[in-house]
Specification:
Length: 426
């Protein structure tokens, strides 16, 4: 009897051993956000006749189980599968263009046995793994290596942009830039990389071509020339080429605006500048969102008591605009608690990236960190009218099975980095 009773704790300890090194704060914070997300989704849909909150919790439970399983599996085995993962990622995105379902002018979902799968969400994790594997082999400290990473990342980015899915394509850009920076690319190179996009916006949307607009544009071009001269080789051509590219980008910005962007994408940008110009049309969403968050004041109006939320004034509130329900019904205190929870997640991701046993694991953590930070900043920014409406969900809080599942898979992968951070001893 003595041997039998003492055997059980040993077995229990053996079962828990695969998770002994995981970061439980990093597991606990997303679970807490998922629970809160279900509560707020239920509140939003209380008078709408929907019941998505239990699906949110069900998907979150499945994602948590998968994350726990991934955490006890060695992440470095993905190195040998990087090109297979990259191929599957691109193939799934290409498949959307032929058999995908269209909604709101975009073709983003594939229906499999009655379930809608959004490949662009899982492509985020696929590109993180691929870039991490590339930079594990050789850092981005040289221009050829940085260009190689950009070429690899450009294929899924283009496929997502053509769906069209502008929000997710921006997430791809943030992931790539964040991982390049962590992979030793010079900050000046990264600024030069995004400068054509900034020029296209400055020349065509934000600044007039007269008065002080000319001065601002000239100052921007001079800044680009100075950064290129300081950071790039070939002093003459290295300075001239970025300047020419930015001038061309400024001209192509008008072409992009007139012939590439969809009408709803143009409307989002114009309404972001001044939503009050069309309060019952394109600006309605942003105005109602701002009213809802402001109405919550310090402590909120109480769960199920928010007028903007319960009377369904805010379209798509259970998905991209779930933060407005939190702001109205839980107030500044509830919104601040959510931000602190995201801050905790990001801090733990940085700690794991810093303490990873190899560059591959560190880059995986930074890729997930870049993805989450960008989505949180843009989503909350658009609800308080600090950024255009881009259709980016709030991680673990917005309703969306694919996004929720992908976020848990990403956390599970980073937990594997934490779980196996101890270097092998011989």
């Amino acid at each position: 009897m003595f041997r039998k009773s003492s055997f059980l704790p040993v077995q229990l300890k053996h079962w828990l051993q695969p998770w002994q090194e995981v970061d439980w704060w990093l597991f606990g914070a997303p679970v807490a956000l998922t629970i809160l997300g279900g509560i707020m989704i239920r509140s939003v849909e209380l008078n709408a006749g929907w019941a998505d909150w239990w699906r949110h919790w069900l998907t979150g439970s499945i994602g948590l189980v998968l994350a726990l399983l991934i955490a006890r599996w060695r992440y470095d085995q993905l190195l040998q599968w990087k090109w297979l993962i990259y191929g599957i990622t691109n193939f799934s995105l290409l498949l959307v263009m032929f058999i995908g379902s269209e909604e709101l002018g975009a073709q983003r979902w594939i229906s499999v046995f009655g379930f809608n799968i959004q490949p662009s969400e899982f492509a985020k994790l696929g590109i993180i793994i691929t870039i991490a594997a590339l930079l594990h082999q050789r850092s981005a400290a040289t221009i050829p290596m940085m260009v190689r990473v950009l070429l690899v990342a450009s294929v899924p980015w283009i496929l997502v942009f053509l769906e069209p899915n502008l929000g997710t394509s921006l997430v791809f850009g943030s992931i790539t830039l964040g991982m390049l920076y962590w992979g030793n690319a010079k900050p000046g190179w990264l600024l030069l990389l995004v400068s054509p996009v900034i020029s296209a916006i400055l020349f065509n949307v934000m600044l007039p071509i007269w008065g002080y607009g000319i001065v601002a544009i000239a100052a921007w071009i001079l800044l680009i020339a100075w950064i290129a001269w300081r950071t790039l080789p070939w002093e003459t051509y290295g300075t001239l080429v970025p300047v020419v590219i930015n001038l061309i980008a400024g001209g192509l910005g008008r072409v992009l605006w007139e012939y590439v962007l969809k009408d709803y994408q143009k409307q989002r940008i114009l309404m972001f500048e001044n939503p009050d110009q069309d309060p019952l049309g394109g600006g309605y969403h942003l105005i109602q969102s701002r009213i809802a968050i402001g109405a919550g004041e310090l402590w909120g109006r109480g769960l199920h008591r928010g007028t903007q939320t319960q009377l369904n004034f805010i379209p798509e509130q259970h998905t991209d605009f779930i933060f407005t329900a939190i702001g109205e019904e839980l107030g500044f205190v509830g919104a601040a608690a959510v931000l602190l929870t995201f801050l905790l997640i990001c801090f733990r991701l940085l700690v794991i990236a810093q303490n990873a046993k190899d560059d591959f694991g560190s880059l995986l953590a930074i890729g997930v960190f870049s993805m989450i930070v960008f989505q949180v900043v843009i989503n909350i920014g658009m609800t308080i009218n600090l950024s255009p409406v881009t259709g980016i969900p709030l991680p673990w809080l917005s309703y969306g099975n694919a996004a929720l599942l992908m976020n848990f898979l990403a956390i599970g992968l980073v937990e594997s980095v934490a779980n196996f951070r101890q270097r092998l001893k011989f």
